[in-house]
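Work Package 4 report. The design task specified in the project plan requires that, given a folded chain encoded as structure tokens, an amino acid be chosen for each position. We show below one input record used in the internal validation round.
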């Protein structure tokens, strides 16, 4: 798959090791991945294959014992490894945004929902508080959260998991990152909410030309929204192809196994 350089988030030969008491774990072993703008790229693989570690590495958010030992991550003409501390802060959020697997862990428990979205908006563009609040309200409406006005005054602990997840998506929309990594964003949500979130994510990719890396176990979801698919197994990408090819002409035995499990 060929994509224009300046319109992709590119991960090249990424290796991530974890140091543990019992030795070194090679969690990611030379991953190559290209996420083009305006499209949805799915990253699929069994539990423990290194999907979350790959995305945390892209954001510079690896746990303390994790280390990028090799590789390059580039977007918008910048190479992540060469950025200053300040630039890395900006990269995280405005170049690449993330919706985490566990939404309760990614919202700040000390601030109201309204505060968190409004601050996100004002970080990105200078505007009066009232204006930012209006905009925040419109993003909460866009993710179909009920009673958005009251919701603005609530703290994360007052919300369900599904609501937190939608708030995270609203924040991602407000920050308008060039790329968004969504790590299992709809696991543990009921089906109706799941559908709404998927269609919001799809809309962001098309309308805002956002490049989305969508991590999931669910091949049904992949078939529905992804443009291209990467299959990961024990720290490596074993197959990469446009979505139709993966479903109709899988080449790797592991991909075939995954597909046979859902058919
Ligand atoms: N802090 C850590 N210390 C040691 N090993 C870790 C650490 N974090 C992750 N790992 C290891 O890295 C590997 C990849 O984990 P990762 O969370 O990326 O898997 P995943 O593909 O996201 O799985 P899941 O689908 O369950 O979310 C696993 O073997 C895991 O044990
Ligand atoms: Ni994960």
């Amino acid at each position: 798959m060929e994509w224009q350089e300046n319109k992709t988030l590119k991960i090249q030969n990424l290796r991530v090791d974890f140091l543990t008491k019992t030795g070194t774990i090679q969690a990611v072993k030379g991953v190559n991945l290209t996420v083009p703008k305006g499209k949805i790229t799915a990253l699929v693989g069994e539990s423990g294959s290194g999907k979350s570690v790959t995305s945390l590495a892209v954001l510079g958010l690896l746990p303390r014992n994790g280390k990028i030992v090799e590789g390059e991550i580039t977007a918008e003409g910048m190479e992540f490894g060469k950025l200053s501390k300040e630039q890395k802060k900006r990269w995280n959020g405005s170049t690449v945004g993330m919706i985490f697997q566990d939404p309760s862990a990614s919202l700040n428990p000390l601030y109201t929902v309204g505060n968190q979205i409004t601050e996100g908006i004002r970080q990105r563009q200078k505007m009066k508080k009232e204006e930012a609040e209006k905009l925040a309200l419109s993003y909460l409406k866009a993710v179909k959260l009920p009673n958005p006005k009251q919701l603005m005054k609530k703290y994360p602990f007052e919300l369900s998991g599904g609501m937190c997840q939608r708030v995270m998506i609203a924040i991602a929309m407000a920050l308008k990152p060039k790329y968004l990594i969504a790590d299992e964003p709809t696991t543990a949500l009921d089906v109706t909410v799941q559908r709404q979130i998927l269609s919001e994510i799809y809309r962001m990719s098309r309308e805002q030309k956002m490049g989305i890396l969508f991590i999931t176990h669910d091949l049904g979801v992949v078939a529905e929204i992804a443009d291209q698919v990467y299959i990961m197994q024990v720290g490596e990408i074993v197959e990469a192809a446009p979505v139709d090819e993966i479903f109709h002409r899988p080449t790797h035995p592991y991909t075939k196994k995954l597909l046979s499990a859902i058919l």
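Residues 18, 20, 25, 27, 45, 47-53, 63, 65-66 surround adenosine-5'-triphosphate (ligand 1) (CB under 6 Å). Validation will be extended to a larger panel in the next phase.
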